[in-house]
Amino acid sequence: MQHETTTLIAERRERLGSRYAQRLRAGGRLPAIVYGHGETPIPVAVDRKLAVQHIERGEKVFNIEFDGRTETVLVKDLQFDHLGTEIIHADLTLVNLNERVETNVHVHLIGTPKGLKTEGALLMHPTTQITIECTVTNIPEEIDVDVSELDAHESIHASEIKLPLDTMKLVSDADAIVAQIVVKNVESTGEEATVEGQAAPEVLTEKKKDEEKD
Amino acid sequence: MPPYKIPKRVKFRKEMRRARDRKATKANYVAFGDYGLQALEGCWLKSNHIEAGRIATMHSLKREGKLFIRVFPDKPISKKPLEIRMGKGKADVDYWAARVRAGVILYELAGVSEEKAREAFRRVSMKMPVRCRFVTRRVEV
Known about the structure:
The structure holds two protein chains of two kinds. By secondary structure, chain A is mainly β. Chain A is built from three helices and 14 strands. In chain A, strand 5 (69-80) and strand 6 form a beta hairpin. The longest helix of chain A has 9 residues, at 18-26. Chain B is α+β, with helices and mostly antiparallel strands. Chain B has a domain at 43-74 and 92-141: Alpha-Beta Complex (Aldehyde Oxidoreductase, domain 3), CATH 3.90.1170. Chain B contains two helices and eight strands. A four-stranded antiparallel beta sheet of chain B has the order 4-7-2-8, with helices on one face. A three-stranded antiparallel beta sheet of chain B has the order 3-6-5. In chain B, helix 1 (47-61) packs antiparallel against helix 2. At the A-B interface, strand 5, strand 7, strand 8 and strand 14 of A face strand 1 and helix 1 of B. Strand 14 (202-203) of chain A pairs parallel with strand 1 (9-10) of chain B.
């Protein structure tokens, strides 16, 4: 759980649109939008370096100062550039500290599964984060899942995860697979062609010869 | 012709060329595995490039781990033969290619260490016609 809440100093964005957002980014600011609690959405800009540093650490709750007031906000969504690395925009929702919110939490797998000793066994974790409902003060940074007892062909579903507090509620699909041991067929060489040699694909809109004669 | 991947059926035999220099708005993050190889430029990735990359990964990892191929060559590229006059209609299909935009993840790997994945993708990137880089799963909220 997050212990200290970082305070971000924000200023309201008067000029909107991609052109002005780009200029803000070039000046070391991160465009963001604050909304929630029935208020009109407020476009703001925060210090990019500080915000990204804390977001990448897994922090989700921030205090934000703008227009002479301080509000608690939760990072709701992030927008990335085309390479998927740089955060270019953040969605911040106004929250109260005792409010129950839905948020995504990263699932951290602990231990070495015993099923990995099987030849061709692989540990897969198709779902890396789950959605939970909890109070803002109790949002965990990550949820640890022990996979050491996981055997070959076995899996752990989201419903089997023990949440840190009893007051937390799982929102995401209970059947979502969080970790599983799949066993690859060792006998297949992996060298053979992926698709049988095919001269040309079937063309769906092509007229048949018989139709042309008619 | 070696048995590279091509579509089983298509709606039209030939296709217009269209742009290759766009930026990715989807398929630009690691979704299935733990590590990925990302194209930093746009291109038409030929089916034989994709196959060469797959084989390079298999040789490097010695069939360890699971490889996800995130691109499929579904674009027919036509080419006129040498020493032929212009005109007389669009040429026959020469090869099949995947439309790759800057930022698209080409391959993903799961079930291997980062060190092995880096080495495998280093070899794969040499087979690719564009600059590529190694990526991991990005921060999500």
